[in-house]
Specification:
Organism: Dryococelus australis
Number of strands: 4
Order of helices and strands: HHHHEEEEH
Radius of gyration: 24 Å
Domain PiggyBac transposable element-derived protein: 17-148
Pfam families: DDE_Tnp_1_7 (PF13843)
Strand content: 15-25%
InterPro entries: PGBD
Protein name: PiggyBac transposable element-derived protein domain-containing protein
Shape: elongated
Length: 156
């Protein structure tokens, strides 16, 4: 997959590269490109050499991945949106398939769908805004979960 490289960053060397990393971030604020990998592009017509001269792309991504700018001593846990959002009167329950080919007991197969394998979801959402309030994963008929309409409504 492009752009999905795993990089091991040596934490002891990070202090040397932090200024270059922040310089590249400031450069990205001035020069906007569609993808972060474009700053290390080698195409002579579209290239910008600034980021490539300072750090390698994988080194930059590794530092960016490990960067944490919050003070955990002053962390304030926020409420979930469901506590502050008041849904309108019309709620809708719909079912959908989340594409998935992994090994789980509740994966389903639907022959006529574009994504034939997946997990079936029952989704409760506000009909006016489309905001998803809750969802439930369909459990296979072999389990002792009540999959009737009444059972689905009670779980949601």
């Amino acid at each position: 997959m492009p752009g999905k490289t795993k990089t091991k960053v040596n934490v002891t060397q990070m202090a040397d590269s932090e200024t270059e990393c922040f310089a590249i971030v400031l450069h990205m604020c001035v020069l906007k490109l569609p993808d972060i990998n474009d700053y290390w592009m080698t195409d002579t017509f579209l290239t910008t050499r600034f980021a490539r001269k300072l750090l390698s792309r994988d080194r930059f991504k590794g530092i960016l991945y490990m960067l944490h700018i919050n003070d955990n001593a002053h962390y304030v846990k926020r409420d979930k949106c469901t506590k502050s959002f008041k849904p309108y009167a019309n709620l809708t329950v719909d079912e959908g398939i989340c594409p998935f080919r992994g090994r789980v007991s509740f994966r389903i197969y639907v022959k006529n769908k574009p994504n034939k394998y997946g997990m079936k979801l029952y989704i409760l959402f506000d009909a006016v805004t489309g905001y998803v309030l809750n969802y439930d994963i369909y459990k296979a008929a072999a389990s002792n979960v009540d999959n009737s309409i009444q059972g689905i409504f009670e779980r949601l």
